[in-house]
Amino acid sequence: MSPPAVHRVAVVGGGIGGLALARALVRKGIDAHVYEQAPSFSSTAGAGFILQPNGSACLQAIGVPRDEIEQIVHPLRDVTLIGGAGRLLARSNAFGDMQRRYAQPLGGALRAELVDVLAHPLAAEHRIHWASRVVAVAQDDEGVTATLETGERVRADILIGADGVHSQIAYAIDAAHERLLRESPRPGGYRFQPALGTNSYEHERVFYGVILDADLPFRHEELGNPHTLLEELSHGEFISYGLGRGRDERSADGGPCRALMWMQTVREAGDYKARDEWTAARDPARANDALRAFIARSPFHDDHPIREAAERTARGRLSSFPISARAHRDVWHHGRICLLGDAAHATLPYTAQGLNMSIEDAVVLADVLADADASGSPVHAAFAAYTRVRHARTKACVAQAEANAALLRSRAALLDRWRDSLLGAVVSGGVLQYAFNAQIEGCPVDIQSARAA
Ligand SMILES: Cc1cc2nc3c(=O)[nH]c(=O)nc-3n(C[C@H](O)[C@H](O)[C@H](O)COP(=O)(O)OP(=O)(O)OC[C@H]3O[C@@H](n4cnc5c(N)ncnc54)[C@H](O)[C@@H]3O)c2cc1C
Question: For position 1, what pLDDT does the model report?
Answer without folding.
Answer: 52
